[in-house]
Amino acid sequence: MKRSILLTGALVLLTACVSVPPKTLDQKLAEAQSPADRKEVLRLACLNEAEVVNGKAYPFKAPTRGRSVKHTPQEVYKTKALCRKMDNLSGDQGDDTPQIRAALSSECSSMLKTYAEKYPKDTRHVSAMTKICREMIK
Q1: Cβ(76)–Cβ(54) below 8 Å
Q2: Is the separation of the CB atoms in 78 and 111 below 8 Å?
């Protein structure tokens, strides 16, 4: 009896520690109820993916006195700027023309091509950003 109580308690503790995997972009997009929600999901996903580069690139340590200086690669700034440009696409502001969409699409593809050449093993980031660019520009 005592053994079954301990076993049950341990089982409850173990199941409480199991983490739930994060939702994928497809799941988040499916849950978005309005175009504004969808746009916000894509904007946040794009900005979060831009930070992926910051974790990989440039293990930089500046010569400082007892503290390290965080160095953000230029790629992160450029990717975030591209995310903001794609987020600004809307018919209300007058900047939603086929030429602008084509320019953003080519900018996104060239940025991803450069990233893929620099980090050939990181196919997850490239495929995620490709999907985000495609969804934001369509």
Answers
A1: yes
A2: yes
Distance CA 75, CA 52 (A): 10
Angle at which helix 74-87 crosses helix 98-118, to 10 degrees, equals: 150
Rounded-to-integer distance, Cα 108 and Cα 79, Å: 8
What is the per-residue pLDDT across 1-58, written as a single tens digit (0 to 9) for each?
677 776 676 666 666 566 677 888 888 888 889 988 999 999 999 999 888 766 654 4
Pure H helices in the chain: 2-17, 25-31, 35-50, 52-56, 74-87, 98-118, 123-137
Please state whether the predicted TM-score (pTM) of the whole model is above 0.85. no
Structure tokens at 5: 């109580």
pLDDT, tens digit, 9 for 90 and up, residues 71-107? 667 888 899 999 999 988 865 555 668 888 899 999 9
